Amino acid sequence: MSVKEYIRERYFPHMWCPGCGHGTILNSLLHAVDQLQLDKKDLVMTSGIGCSARISGYVDFHSLHTIHGRALAFATGVKLSKPELKLIVPMGDGDALAIGGNHFIHAARRNIDITAIVMNNRIYGMTGGQFSPLSGAGKKATTAPYSTIDSAFDVVKLATAAGASFVARSTAYHVLETIDILKKAINHKGFSVVEILSQCPTHYGRKNKEGNASQMLKFQKDTTAKIGSKALEKNPLLIPRGIFVDNDVPEYCQAYDEVIERAMKGRKA
Amino acid sequence: MARLKLKEHVINRDWCKGCGICVDFCPKQVLELDSKEKVIAARPEDCICCKLCELRCPDLAIEVLTDRDDKND
Amino acid sequence: MTEKIKFVQGNEACVEGALYAGVDFFAGYPITPSTEIAEVLSKRLPEKGGKFIQMEDEIASMCAIIGASLTGHKVMTATSGPGFSLKQEALGYACMAEIPCVIVNVQRGGPSTGNPTHVSQGDINQARWGTHGDHSIIALTASNHQDVFAMTVDAFNLAETYRTPVVLLFDEAVGHMREKLIVPEAGEIARVDRLRTSLGKGVDYHPYLPREDGRLPMSDFGGDHRYNVTGLFHDMWGFPSNNPKVVSGLLHHLNDKIENNVHNITRYKEHFMDDAEYILISYGSSARSAIHIATNRRARGEKMGVLELQSLWPFPEAMIREKCANAKAVLVVEMNMGQVMRHVKAAVDRPENVFLVNRIDGKLITPTDIKSLLRVIQGRGV
């Protein structure tokens, strides 16, 4: 099968801006799903609101484009009610961690088998370039004309602390790593979080003078390094990439099956 | 392992938005944007079939079709 | 069958009704005075292989049941005042995406945290207009446990029939009061199950194209048909569209499928309504006091009756107008500032004859409260 088999071609070209990293993330995800030879019938994509969320319309999966920040809560209902389905939940940084922050940590705590992808472009793009909880301090945005004073979350640390059993980070530049990580995340039994640094040349890049899409991608290349690499050892200020957590922990739907077993036994007794 | 041999670059001009990512990161400068800001394979003979253009394209607009070159096995 | 007779809380009667209707997925969050519904379902659902999940908040609970409905399950959540406020956005999503689900609101005093352990009927209009935008909604209510059971079964049936969220508006007094409930034998009350498409694999399925009878067959997530579900205005495939024709067509459809079926959705009970000159319109626990008064007055030969509403939305305007055509006075008995009274005034021919008997202090309306107003209306002094 080719990656085109997994998209709804009639809705292309997609609505994202030229050079948007979200398109590359879609591309990587399609390659991951294709390489895993997954059956489209088993795939459900749930998304929230924002640029990122439009991804669910383009994939030929069962797709659920929901409300802002709540994609994981909807996905929890889909997954628990039909555990044989594979849930992929791409979210923007504001979607996942501002309005959706509570659902994010609780899905991680439950370790429900969902693959959460944080498409982190550090900005609210759809509404025109307001700062997000991942912008970090000292950044320009339409709601931060004097630059931001808010600190950013570290998605990897947050997800790890909340109990996600698979946590990884890649970038839109490092496509081969992204594909490999996404394959492992999808196959992982439990809640997996993959943060993928993305670029928004239209808003974030323009406001913060980071150049065009290619220059922003080069920035991702220059400011990140693989876990365990010499580059990271030499310069700990680089953002680490790779798989940070990969634990075998009881999964929520399986645990609930045991609840059902106990309840049914109790009834018979 | 068999090396890949280029058949052709299939470019979907309706989907290409001319962002230039494929052009800028091609290790062999095979690709260019034309006067309409759409990508073209200007020097296909230099292509090493790494397919990074295909994988990085945000618009799924470029595909590198290859054959296995079994002579190099 | 003696084991079918139970002595239960109203909240438990609601659970029995939901189980009878076939609920197999519940998501909720603790809140007074509805919590017993979640507590009992956490025990009962896994016993029959169903799923219960306690979510991180009210919003998530509403979202989770919508997700579970899409995989083909009968779903419910339960809440009260503040929780009902939090659920409104996702409730609108269920209206827009046409997803069957049941939302129980056991009403307590508001606004805000209000009077959590005391009775109120202050969320009637919120059930109608709590979520933003034009839409229509079905809301049912009940005054006793047998009716709580029946209305809960009905709520599931209507949700499936019209592919829409249905709100059950109970109140704290009914929810917490204990009385007898007879659980009917299976099959005694009809059950509407999910209408699924008969189209096979490879055939272009339109999840949002109504059949001639107005119903929209569904396809479970995980089934042969992959389609898009969105809260944006969408075409017949569920793909976002802002084409003016698509937008107005969908909005008309969402309203018409309910408003054009008021006669099918309306549920009410008549107590001594033949030749009644004084009509008490009431619902929920308030109706119990109204029925008490009418029973006593009838015994004294006074022509008084009670029209007990069991469906509040869509508002049964035509039915009320007809029943009240010959009334000397209509008293709306409710525990709010006149939320239903205003709609009754708009419905009847002589709105000047419509009066409000209310309490808003967290106490039940007593027969004495109703008697006091009757004295004034009937010219028997204050």
Write structural notes for this entry.
Chain C: One of its GO terms (molecular function) is oxidoreductase activity. Chain C: It comes from Desulfocicer vacuolatum DSM 3385. Chain C: InterPro entries: 2-oxoacid_oxidoreductase (IPR052368), PFOR_II (IPR033412), Pyrv_Fd/Flavodoxin_OxRdtase_N (IPR002880), THDP-binding (IPR029061), Transketo_C/PFOR_II (IPR009014). With about 270 residues, chain A is an alpha/beta fold. Chain A has one domain: Thiamin diphosphate (ThDP)-binding fold, Pyr/PP domains (Rossmann fold). Chain A has helices spanning about 20-35, 55-60, 70-80, 95, 100-110, 155-160, 175-185, 200-205, 215-225, 230-235, 250-269; strands at about 45, 60-65, 85-90, 115-120, 125, 130, 165-170, 190-195, 225, 240-245. In chain A, the strands form two sheets. Chain A has an eight-stranded mixed sheet, sandwiched between helices. In chain A, helix 1 (about 20-35) crosses helix 7 (about 175-185). Chain B has one domain (about 5-70): Alpha-Beta Plaits (2-Layer Sandwich). In chain B, strand 2 (about 30-35) and strand 3 (about 40) form a beta hairpin. Chain B is globular and about 35 Å long. Chain C has about 375 residues and is α/β, with parallel strands linked by helices. Chain C folds into two domains: about 1-180, Rossmann fold (3-Layer(aba) Sandwich); about 270-375, Rossmann fold (3-Layer(aba) Sandwich), CATH 3.40.50.920. In chain C, strand 15, helix 13 and strand 16 form a beta-alpha-beta unit. Chain C is globular, with a radius of gyration of 21 Å. The interface of A and C includes residues 57, 77, 262 and 266 of A.
Name a few traits of the molecule.
heterotrimer; B: 73 residues; alpha+beta; Alpha-Beta Plaits; two-stranded antiparallel sheet; 2 helices; 32% strand; globular; C: 382 residues; alpha/beta; Rossmann fold; 2 domains; 8-stranded mixed sheet; 5-stranded mixed sheet; 14 helices; 16 strands
Would you spell out the secondary-structure blueprint of this structure?
The complex is a heterotrimer of chains A (269), B (73) and C (382).
Chain A: H1 21-35, E1 43-47, H2 55-58, E2 62-65, H3 71-81, E3 86-92, H4 93-97, H5 101-110, E4 114-120, E5 123-124, E6 130-131, H6 155-162, E7 166-171, H7 175-187, E8 192-197, H8 201-207, H9 213-223, E9 224-226, H10 230-234, E10 239-246, H11 252-268
Parallel strand pairs in A: 1-2, 1-3, 3-4, 4-8, 7-8, 9-10
Antiparallel strand pairs in A: 5-6, 7-10
Helix pairs in contact in A: 1-7, 5-6
Chain B: E1 3-11, H1 21-25, E2 31-33, E3 39-41, H2 52-56, E4 62-69
Antiparallel strand pairs in B: 1-4, 2-3
Chain C: E1 5-9, H1 10-21, E2 25-28, H2 35-47, E3 51-54, H3 58-70, E4 75-79, H4 81-86, H5 88-97, E5 101-109, E6 115-119, H6 124-129, E7 138-140, H7 145-162, E8 165-171, H8 172-176, E9 178-182, E10 228-230, H9 244-259, H10 262-265, E11 268-271, E12 278-282, H11 284-299, E13 304-309, E14 311-313, H12 317-323, E15 329-334, H13 339-347, E16 354-358, H14 367-377
Parallel strand pairs in C: 2-3, 2-4, 4-5, 5-8, 7-8, 12-13, 12-15, 15-16
Antiparallel strand pairs in C: 1-9, 5-6, 7-14, 11-13
Helix pairs in contact in C: 1-2, 1-7, 3-5, 12-13
